[in-house]
Design goal:
By secondary structure, this protein is an all-alpha fold. The protein has helices at 2-17, 23-69.
């Protein structure tokens, strides 16, 4: 895994050095891609959060409906 990341970093660096774009254009593209990646990450987190909320809601509904149908155990003494 370290070798892969090292190769990725070296390839990125060489790509920047030999890029046919000006520094300003290259920085703009990097910023744009970073923004896209951040947006994708936010979307991914939001989807995960929504799935958790739906699951918790479903579990609560099921637990509530089971309580309604449970018979008393007779252990409650008055």
């Amino acid at each position: 895994m370290k070798s892969f990341l090292a190769g990725l970093g070296i390839g990125f660096g060489i790509g920047i050095i030999f890029a046919p774009l000006s520094g300003e254009e290259t920085r703009g593209r990097i910023a744009s891609r970073a923004g896209d990646l951040a947006g994708s990450a936010r979307d991914f987190v939001d989807q995960g959060r929504e799935r958790v909320r739906e699951t918790v809601s479903r579990v609560r509904r099921r637990a509530g409906s089971r309580r309604e149908y449970e018979e008393p155990t007779g252990t409650d003494s008055v």
